[in-house]
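Practice problem 4.
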């Protein structure tokens, strides 16, 4: 049994790699940072590394070719990053890299998995989105929120198509709220509320993945907040999101 995880050098990806390894999987850890990836893999039994910068489409294509060759039973699209600021404060090239990592690579890797997983036993795809994917927009993190909305929407669409065709492939989307990872250091902000540990989120996500839960939201508080968000106006939600994100700066 093989498991491939992108964004595996730290945070949720690294913790998931450890959990899958303890479950007996051969783990393939993917990240753009070779040094951090090698360091992370040393603590994880039966692991290999694959260095790929998913903001670069050539690297994404090489990873997809590798996936077709290896045919992992479980693939976790975890790589992603954000950037805080007003739209004119963020370099456009950085935003395009974000779209390539958060959207394009997820789409390509998912499509690649769908090519071969029908013949693979216990085939699972887990796409990591965010609770941001439920929101109408994310002022101060506009591009990031939009990318996570794509991941959530795309995963749910593919899920329904697979069920309608009676395919054996399982696909789920993980939508956590704040998690204590390296996200804020990369994005340039800090959480205004206490985040969940990446270990808790990873354990919860894997448990729900194997129970074939479609949308996975760790933490009762976040699930409750998302439930009540259905009953307020879009403008009110945008005001709340702006207030939360602005405090992170």
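Answer key:
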């Amino acid at each position: 049994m093989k498991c491939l995880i992108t964004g595996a050098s730290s945070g949720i990806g690294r913790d998931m790699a450890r959990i899958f390894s303890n479950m007996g999987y051969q783990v393939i850890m993917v990240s753009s940072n070779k040094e951090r990836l090698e360091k992370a893999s040393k603590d994880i039994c039966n692991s290999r590394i694959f260095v790929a910068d998913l903001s670069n489409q050539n690297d994404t294509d090489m990873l997809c070719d590798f996936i077709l060759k290896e045919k992992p039973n479980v693939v976790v699209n975890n790589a992603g990053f954000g950037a805080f600021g007003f739209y004119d404060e963020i370099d456009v090239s950085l935003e395009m890299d974000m779209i390539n990592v958060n959207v394009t690579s997820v789409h390509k890797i998912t499509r690649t998995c769908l090519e071969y997983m029908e013949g693979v036993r216990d085939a699972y795809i887990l796409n990591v989105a965010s609770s941001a994917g439920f929101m109408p927009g994310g002022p101060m993190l506009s591009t990031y929120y939009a990318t996570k909305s794509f991941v959530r929407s795309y995963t749910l669409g593919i899920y329904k198509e697979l069920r309608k065709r009676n395919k054996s492939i399982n696909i789920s989307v993980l939508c956590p709220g704040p998690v204590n990872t390296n996200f804020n250091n990369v994005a340039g902000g800090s959480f205004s509320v206490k985040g969940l540990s990446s270990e808790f989120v990873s354990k919860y996500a894997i448990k729900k993945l194997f129970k074939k839960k479609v949308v996975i939201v760790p933490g009762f508080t976040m699930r409750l907040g998302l439930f009540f968000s259905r009953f307020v106006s879009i403008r009110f939600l945008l005001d709340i999101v702006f207030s939360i994100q602005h405090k992170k700066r």
